[in-house]
Amino acid sequence: MKTIDELEARLTAQRRVLMWLVQELSAEQAARLMAELWEPFPPQDGQEDPGAVPAGAFAVEAGYGAEIRMILRGLSPPDSQGGGDKT
Q1: With b meaning 16 or more CB within 10 Å and e meaning fewer, what string describes 18-30?
Q2: Digit-coded pLDDT (tens) for 38-64
Q3: Does residue 29 carry a pLDDT above 90?
Q4: How far apart are the C-alpha atoms of 17 and 15, rounded to whole Å?
Q5: How confident is the model at residue 87 (pLDDT cuts 50, 70, 90)?
């Protein structure tokens, strides 16, 4: 079993690679990626009406959003002109 420090180091390395790849995208590719990743999805809380009962699924959704923001920082929001640093 991996320690928390080992897992954190692996996640950080993967995050750095993803951030570099994102910065290399064309403006069109960056816009498409951002639109896809920001597409809302219902929390998977096992309820017939997702989100009706607060659950741990919301923590997962918040973590997802935080990680996406970390990876995509430096890119323009999907509704703004352009995409990443490349034009």
Answers
A1: eeeebeebebeeb
A2: 776 655 555 565 555 556 667 777 888
A3: yes
A4: 5
A5: very low
What phi and psi, each to the nearest 5 degrees, are found at residue 45?
A: -105, 10
pLDDT at 61: 78
- If phi > 0 it is left, if psi is from -120 to 50 it is alpha, else beta; for residue 74 that is left
Residue 87, in any domain of the structure:
no
- For residue 8, being part of any structural domain is answered with yes
> Do the Cβ atoms of 85 and 74 come closer than 8 Å?
yes
Residue 66 lies in a domain: yes
Residues 25, 2: Cα–Cα separation, whole Å: 33
* Domains held by the chain: number: 1
Could you list the residue range(s) of the whole structural domain that residue 38 is in? Answer: 4-72
The answer to whether position 21 is within a domain reads: yes
Round to whole Å and give the CA distance between 7 and 17. Answer: 16
